[in-house]
Amino acid sequence: MKNMQRGVFVSLKKHGDLRGCIGTIFPATDSVAKEIIRNAIEAGLNDPRFYEVEEEELMDIDFSVDVLTEPEVASKEDLNPSEYGVIVRHMGKTGLLLPDLEGVDTVEEQLSIALEKGNIDPDEDYTIQRFQVIRHKES
């Protein structure tokens, strides 16, 4: 278990609002522990949607960690946004959306957001993969 490799997403929330989220679909390090550390630092410092997390904010930030299962080829009918995350790909472009996100209730919403994140036109011939996560949250 100590040397298990997996993709990991780390999300930072401040007072319930997203403050940073960075992840890897496939592992970039040699263990889940190192992957979590790497992505937590990246989420706090390098998420392009947010300014860097300041030291005085740390006590107000809740962390969650999603450890991804191996992605598997899927069709639209195989998806369920509360159970599966989705990866869409087309000609070198990739969009990913984690499962069980607030406000994402249908497969159509899930695919639409993932396609937008990957800058993929919905009319293009894209591939779909699904995955599950083991979610760890601060309580």
From TrEMBL:
Domain AMMECR1 span(s) in chain numbering: 1-139
Pfam family, one: AMMECR1
PROSITE patterns: AMMECR1 (PS51112)
Range of residues in the leader sequence: none
Cross-referenced PANTHER family: AMME SYNDROME CANDIDATE GENE 1 PROTEIN, AMMECR1 HOMOLOG
Name of the protein described by the UniProt record: AmmeMemoRadiSam system protein A
